[in-house]
# Entry
Amino acid sequence: MTTALVTGASEGIGLEFCKILASRGYDLILVARRQEILEQIAKDLTTAHAINCHVISSDLARPQAAQQLFQATLDRGLQVDFLINNAGLLQNGFFTELDLTTQENMISVNIMALTSLSHLYANAMAKQNGGHILNVASLAAWLPIPNQNVYAATKAYVLSFTQALHDELNAAQSGVKVCALCPGYTATKMMDNPAQGKKLTVPGSMLQSPQDVALQGIEACLKGKPTVVPGLSNRMTTWISHLFSKMALAKTAGRLYRKNLN
# Structure
C-alpha cells in the first residue's frame, strides 16, 4: 500500500488532494494545525475508501516543525511515497502596513518548511528506490506582484527550487520525481480570508475549481513533469511573463491589485 503525506490537508486544494488520493487507494497522513477537523476528515475518508488515515497536527511556521513532522512519521513506522507540500500562507496589502511577524510566518511556511520537508523526504525516498514530491507554488511565482510581494516572492522560490531539484534528482537517478504546481485564482478560502489582510476581488469566471487543480497536480507529478500550470489562460500568463521586463510586469500587476483590493 502506498502512502501520501499532505500538508494543509484540512481544506481547499489540500483537502481535494486527499480525496483524490484516497479514491485511488492511497493511505494518507493528514497534516494541518486543526486536529479536530483532521480527525473528521480522516474518519470520512476511511469510511468512504477503506484506507488508513493518520493525523498529525503541526504548525509549520514553528521552528523545527518540519523535522518534528518527519520524526513523527518515523516514530509511527510510516513510509511516505508521495509528499505534497501544499500548506501555504498569503497576505494582501502594503508591505509596510502588514504585520511583520505574520509575514515572517509566511516565509517560514512557504519556504523553510517546504524546503526542509523536501530535503528530508527526498533522501528517505531515494533509499526506498523512488517516490514523488509535489510542491504547490502559484501563478504568482511567475510575476513580481506589489501588495502581494512577499507571497509572490516565496512562490517564485518554490518554483525555482522545485525545477532545479527535479533536474538534480533525475541526474542522480534517485527515482524521486519532483513537480511544481502553479495554480491561478482558485475557489478556496484564500480568496476571502480576513486573516490575510485585504480581500482581492476576482470575477467568478476566473476561478478554477480546487478539484481540477489538485487532479492536474497529481497527474503531472506521477508522470514526472517538472512543472504544471492548470488552465490555458494561466499558461498564457506565464508565456507573457517572458516578453516584458520584471519592472513593467510589476507596475501592471500593482495597478490591477490595488484596484481590486478592498
Remarks:
- The radius of gyration is 18 Å.
- The chain has eight helices and seven strands.
- The mean pLDDT is 93.
- The domain at 3-260 is CATH 3.40.50.720 (Rossmann fold).
